[in-house]
Amino acid sequence: MQLQLHSKIEAPPGMAACAHGVAASGDVINLYVAQDKAASLSQRDSTGMFLNTATDKPYDGIVEVCSRYAGTRRAICGATATLPQVQMLPDGEALIVAPRCRRKNADDIEQNATVFAPDGTIAQRFCLGDGIEDVQVSAKGDLWVSYFDEGVIGNYGWKHPMGANGLVRFNSHGERQWGFTPEVILDCHALNVAADCVWAYYYTEFELARIDADGSIKRWPTAIRGATAVAVGAHAVLFAGGYATKQLSEANLCLWQKGQLSKPAPIELAIDNADVNQAKWLGARGSALYAAAQDAWYMLDIRTLR
């Protein structure tokens, strides 16, 4: 199954791509920083075991938003996020999030989410918790945040983690609005914030859950173990990656049959002149699977499958 070219990833001179994401519009997002700053975004502490939660010094960058036909760039100033995740808010603000943050005490909590105004200056900072797996912003500006096990159970000083539900919705000011319940999400492997609902695929149950606008949840058991990204259409669901081979190119397609998921059919994902397994970013929005691989973005919309 072939992914098609969406757009090129062309870093400005002297800069390197350090983060990727997909906006609610389906446009892709790239974050570029100076090449001599890029290594600091993945530095670990003196033990080599734990990722630094922030860079020693703030850095500047460029946020690029690209459709299939055109792109826009804007500068940002004063970012500190390590292993940054990037999203866009509806009014043109950029959101940069660090997946890890420390809680020393109630009065000393790192603010790991930064909102940059359209002119590139910092508009606000707030905390979204530690152990963040993914962040996706909805069309109306809700921040959906999924967490891996350390963000659910607690580490980095968090005895009562913000991510204890495994999936939490915040507003654009970082105020908690909703948390997944009653099932326990120990690790939310895949998040998909679509136009009309939110999809989550998680461990330990390996269920696919649909969260509607009113917060109601419907769940479907799956036979898939450890998928990395899930694209959902009206007729089928594509699960990319898994525990069995640890290869992103190994995917499974399930059909909707009388409201239930069919037995998975294994398929192989492929890209011309690139390797899906070397993708820098793999995720989904609605029915579309996206991959940032080498120097380009690729996409597969499962609505085109027959």
Structural class: mainly beta
The helical percent reads: under 10%
In round numbers, the mean pLDDT is: 95
Shape: globular
Number of strands: 27
Largest sheet: 5 strands, antiparallel
Helix and strand pattern: EEEEEEEEEEEEEHEEEEEEEEEEEEEE
Low-confidence stretches: none
Q: Please work out how many helical segments DSSP would assign.
A: 1
For the CA atoms, what is the radius of gyration?
A: 18 Å
Terminal residue distance: 12 Å
Query: DSSP strand (E) fraction?
Result: over 45%
Report on this structure.
The chain has a domain at 229-306. It has one helix at 149-153; strands at 4-8, 15-22, 28-34, 54-66, 71-81, 85-88, 94-97, 103-105, 108-109, 113-116, 122-126, 132-137, 143-147, 167-170, 176-179, 187-193, 198-203, 207-211, 217-221, 229-232, 236-240, 250-257, 260-261, 265-268, 281-285, 288-293, 296-301. The chain is globular. It is mainly beta. Strands 20, 21, 22, 23 and 24 form a 5-stranded antiparallel beta sheet that branches. Strands 1-27-26-25 form a 4-stranded antiparallel beta sheet, with no helix packed on it. A hairpin with a 5-residue loop joins strand 12 (132-137) and strand 13 (143-147).
